[in-house]
Amino acid sequence: MPARRYPAKGGIGVRAFDLAKLTVGVVSFLALANCDETLTSSVVPQPRPAPAPRAANAYVPPSAASQDLARFYQRVERDLLVRGLLRTDGGGPDTPYDADDLARNFEAIAFYSEYPTQSVSIGSRQTDGQLSRWSGPVRIQTEFGPSVLPATRHQDAERVQSFSTRLARLTDHPISVVSRNANFHVFFAGKDDSAYVVSRLKQLIPNISQESLNLVANPRANFDCLVFASATTTSPHKYVRAVSLIRAELTDLVRRSCIHEEIAQGLGLSNDSPAARPSIFNDDDEFALLTSHDEKLLTMLYDQRLEPGVTVDEARPVIRIISRELMGQPL
Questions:
Q1: How far is CA 183 from the centre of its chain?
Q2: R_g (Cα) of the chain, nearest Å
Q3: For residues 110 and 131, is the Cβ–Cβ distance under 8 A?
Q4: Measured over all CA atoms, what is the biggest interatomic distance in the chain, rounded to whole angstroms?
Q5: C-alpha distances in angstroms, 165 versus 124, 140, 218, 247?
Q6: What is the rounded CA–CA span in Å between residue 102 and residue 324?
Q7: Tell me, what's the pLDDT at 187?
Q8: What is the dihedral angle through the alpha carbons of 105, 92, 15, 22, rounded to the nearest 10 degrees?
Q9: Please, is 154 exposed, middle or buried when counting C-beta atoms within 10 Å of its C-beta (0-12, 13-18, 19+)?
Q10: What are residue 28's phi and psi, to 5 degrees?
Q11: Residue 104 CB: number of other CB atoms within 10 A?
């Protein structure tokens, strides 16, 4: 899930600020239960009246409260940048790592969830210590709340497209951006757009938990972005649907950071580790964008020598081989 976080992750991927971090990580819920169904909930967020269906995402200027939140995020980003955080260089001579570091970090980030106790699917099983990822094609679609400017929508959509292409190359897995029949929805929405988002989630994922819907409808200010990755009860280690929410009020850099972290977490890198460096899967906010280290984690995650559901102990010998191959170190 996820780089800047306040505190909150788990079956759901959430990124939050420590106020040493600017983005909210991912809370990965292996459990929107049988995600092939639709969300149901009694949550009725009302920051503004829900627009008519045909004009649901027509642009509506943000409220004063939304503008205040945007200024808050700007202050947080300035503080992080002054302290040399939110790096975009991908790592360098000052952040060395070897095959053993890569293997150790992969185990921590790919086999465990940030918030395992927050899994809410009825009938779901605890999957910590086992590998989870997508087995079928990942079809990503971007959606925008009414408060997102048209020009910003275009920019965000292009970034998701570019990042998806990069992820497909790194994982050698079918990952693409689509305009319909998506199974991975990325919402860019502001404080004013909760009614719109909840309405869409109810259409997309029946049976979403009340806790999850509450989190999406009224996320705390320290949550920059979050992601739900869900499997079915019959195949709890194979993701079939994901939903990510990225706040519209975020600064440009943090929005980019959320795209990188939340989509990557939604693919299966669902945890953070304080030992991972250079990496966005670390709550220290040092890096804003996917690093060379993180690219290797994604390649390892989708290596066919590892199967969904394999335990960390069973996978360890193979992880050691793959990490040394990627680092060019002798076996």
A1: 14
A2: 18
A3: yes
A4: 62
A5: 32, 11, 32, 23
A6: 9
A7: 96
A8: 150
A9: exposed
A10: -100, 115
A11: 16
Q: How many CB atoms lie within 10 A of CB 310?
A: 18
Its pTM stands at 0.83
Q: In whole angstroms, give the CA distance from residue 281 to residue 273.
A: 6
Going by C-alpha positions, the residue among 242, 268, 241 that lies closest to residue 36 is 241
How far is it, in rounded angstroms, from Cα 314 to Cα 32? 27
Q: What is the pLDDT along the chain (331 residues), one digit of tens a residue?
A: 333 333 233 345 666 654 333 333 333 333 333 333 333 333 344 445 554 444 558 999 999 999 999 999 999 999 999 999 999 999 999 999 999 999 999 999 999 986 543 333 323 334 579 999 999 999 999 999 999 999 999 999 999 999 999 999 999 999 999 999 999 999 999 999 999 998 898 888 888 777 878 777 777 777 789 998 889 999 999 999 999 999 999 999 999 999 999 999 999 999 999 999 999 999 899 999 999 999 999 999 999 999 999 999 999 999 999 999 999 999 8
Q: Which residue has the tokens 């984690």?
A: 297
Gap between the Cα atoms of 313 and 128, Å rounded: 12
Q: What is the SS3 assignment for the chain? A: CCCCCCCCCCEEEEEECCCCCCCCCEEECCCCCCCCCECCCCCCCCCCCCCCHHHCCCCCCCCHHHHHHHHHHHHHHHHHHHCCCCECCCCCCCCCCCHHHHHHHHHHHHCCCCCHHHCCCCCCCCCCCECCEECCCEEEEEEECCCCCHHHHHHHHHHHHHHHHHHHHHHCCCEEECCCCCCEEEEEECHHHHHHHHHHHHHHCECCCHHHHHHHHCCCCCEEEEEEEEECCCCCCEEEEEEEEEECCCCHHHHHHHHHHHHHHHHCCCCCCCCCCCCCCCCCCCECCCCHHHHHHHHHHCCCCCCCCCEHHHHHHHHHHHHHHHHCCCC
